[in-house]
Design brief:
With 146 residues, the chain is an alpha+beta fold. It has a single domain, classed as Aminopeptidase (3-Layer(aba) Sandwich). Helix content is 29%, strand content 36%. It contains four helices and seven strands. A seven-stranded mixed sheet has the order 1-2-3-4-5-7-6, with helices on both faces. A hairpin with a 2-residue loop joins strand 6 and strand 7. The termini are far apart. The structure holds coenzyme A. Coenzyme A binds next to strand 4, helix 3, strand 5 and helix 4.
Length: 146
């Protein structure tokens, strides 16, 4: 584990065309290699229209997320060595604030069941049955933001 000061982590809105290399690299490591998500599910055709976010520490990209036009947050990934020290939470708060600024009214996501407590910390509410996506149990969660 690489311990870092969360206040030194810089989060910014990314650009798919400009930041495609680092965005794909981090998602390849976390989702395709670590979680065995199939390539065709990972690259689902929504990246060109989604808003993307990156977290950097000393210019090294350590986390990412995206927000689709329909209000779905996804592809939330922190590199393994940097987890459980508040970086994911900082990134999620940034995404929520950015969505509010951009007049989204409701956010939703498909949470891996293990990650439900992570999203509950930011008041997302789980509802409906557990379903399987990429062989991983998920539940839908939502948050009303206006
Ligand atoms: C889920 C993920 C983004 C969380 O990022 P992180 O930087 O480790 O999370 P944080 O350290 O900011 O955690 C924030 C809070 O959520 C809790 N939390 C984080 N991951 C959790 C988990 N898997 N299960 C339960 N609680 C969790 C933390 O304990 C923390 O609570 P605290 O403030 O009381 O300590 C990260 O584990 C990850 O990238 N996982 C692999 C990809 C993935 O599964 N993405 C989610 C798809 S739905």
């Amino acid at each position: 584990m690489t311990l870092i000061a969360t206040n030194k982590v810089n989060i910014h809105v990314a650009d798919w065309d400009k930041n495609k290399d680092v965005l794909t690299e981090i998602r390849k490591i976390v989702f395709i290699e670590e979680q065995n998500v199939p390539q065709d599910m990972e690259w689902d055709g929504h990246d060109e229209t989604a808003i993307h976010y990156l977290a950097r520490f000393n210019d090294k990209v350590i986390a990412c997320a995206r927000l689709k036009t329909d209000g779905q947050i996804g592809r939330m990934a922190v590199l393994e060595n940097y987890r459980r020290q508040g970086i994911g939470n900082k990134l999620l708060v940034f995404v929520i604030q950015h969505a509010i600024t951009n007049n989204f009214k409701q956010l939703f996501l498909h949470a891996q069941v293990d990650a439900i407590p992570f999203y509950e910390k930011q008041s997302f509410i789980a509802h409906g049955d557990i379903f399987i996506e990429a062989d991983i149990p998920h539940r839908e969660m939502y948050k009303i933001i206006n």
